[in-house]
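Researcher: Quick sanity check before group meeting.
Model: Go ahead. Protein one:
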Amino acid sequence: MTVDYYCDTCELETEDDGKCLLTEVRDEYTSEEFIHPDLKSWTILFKTVIPRLLEETPHDSWRDGVPDGEFVIYRGGSPDGFSWTLSQKRAIWFAERFKPIGRHDFVYTMPVTKEEILWYNDSRNEQEVVLVPDLSKVKRLKHYAGIWYVGD
């Protein structure tokens, strides 16, 4: 299935239809290694379709594993991606995984609350949180002598 399919399939008749579609979208997103070819469609989906479905469909369990209150999430790569993690160590791994081929990515951090998270997924031991990031809150970690830290 393509992301465009989900964007076009939003006329739901029952709560179960919404749960089914949310599960399909989550499973499809989780199975993708790189979403960049469909970035525009995923952006539409995450900014419009998914929030509407989450409002109309009970989904408390989708955030199980996410702390209450404000907490910090991390991302290795670019700051505008949807997949972040609760683990700084995992974000560093993502930032450094292409280092052997000469690509140098950064690690980012952002404070969030549970309500900002679309869903949490730990099926691949990544402590992944999926959300549309508020870029005004993102800070880049600095790297010095093998240590990553929040810089000014």
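Researcher: Fine. The other one?
Model: Protein two, sequence then structure:
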Amino acid sequence: MTQAYRDLAKQFYGPVYPIMPAFDSQYRLDTKAIARYVDYLCEHKVRAVMVTAGTSRFTTLNNAEIAELNRAVVKAVKGRTKTIIANPMVGTTSDAIEFAKLGDEIGADALLVYFPDRFYSTEHSVDDCRAIGKESKLGLRIHAMPMRTGAAM
């Protein structure tokens, strides 16, 4: 285990609160509602918030909307807690790298990495993380999907 990994792990202990995309009456992303929810969490001293697919309609968002959601969350946090943004669940390693670069630009702390469907093995996952890590300073959190890989967790 590297020192960088140990330092990152220390930053993310305790509950991590998922941020669900909110939508307005026209089914557009409602960044004001998202900001109010993030503000509520920060006022109650949560240690970290995370954009994630597992608890929401994240999978219905296109790449531009995912970027908008990531931006809205980091902006609403205002440095009060740790932020974990996410890349799209579909796409390429290059797409994930673009989202990691976005995270660097907007001041996120980490990226929740979803792997392209074609990456099923540990080797592929490690290679994907290495490629992302070479292009970004963000800490990487891996979204494990045993149903894709067949690996027992």
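Researcher: One line on it for the slide.
Model: Residues 63-77 form the longest helix (15 residues).
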